[in-house]
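are you around this afternoon, could really use another pair of eyes. what follows is a protein written twice so to speak, once as letters and once as structure tokens for the fold. i want to understand how the tokens follow from the sequence so walk me through it. anything you notice is useful, everything is just below.
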Amino acid sequence: MCKICKGFTRVAAILSVLCYIGISFQAASAVWNITYPQSEVESDIRDIYSLALLELALQKTGVRYELTQSLQPMKQPRALKRLEENLDINLIWSMTDTVREQQLRPIRIPITRGLIGWRVFLSHQNSPFLEAPINDITDLLEFSPVQGISWPDTKILQANGFNVITARDYIESTQFINTQQADFFPRSVIEVMQELDNQYSVNMQRRKDLVFYYPSALYFFTNKQNITLSRLIETGLNRAIEDGSFEKLFNEHFGETLEILDIKNALNFRLANPLLPPLTPIDEARYWYYPNQ
């Protein structure tokens, strides 16, 4: 090979290496911009915990990131639709079902360790429901719960035989309880204590001796095509589980609440969840909370 050709080859090799280094540096220094829907309820405990867990997962991966909420509050149906269309937001946390997993990309690690499926009952302080003798599921089916019309919980309860009163959203659900158009409002253990302190629940009480449980999971979801972001968050969550920081954060946020609610000593009705996707990692014990352990 002539000297000129060798020179060109050497220059090309050097440029190739420099280009590779530049691309690698750019990838390493890139900032991950993650936008999530702004909640309609200020200081929602579900959002506070989910954001803290998201930050923990991202920190475990070592990437640079910036978390931003959408410019306007979003009701859940709109947020799910915008994420599916890859508009305005690129991440959401939501209860899973078969339809959502078809439309979006789930990160199949239950972020609240299944607590979303543990439900306690709120009712109007003057409602007969609070003192009614309930010893089995047949007794409970005599009463009508209220749920949001687009919530997966509604279909789950209907599939188990309940006459569900449907509302447009959380606020209207509380109105149905306050006007005694519905008998009780099943709320997950992760949200009920905060809700009892808000302005919509001033006339409500919790029935302390009853709970029901159906297997369910609250996941982070990305757009179907956003594989990279999905895998990044999944990697961080698994690292947090392995080093114990996931459980530590969980206990910091929910440990006191679980002691107060004492669900392990309540009469527990286990319901079927026909909407549970087949790939839900039910048998992965490290992902789930068990009250009696």
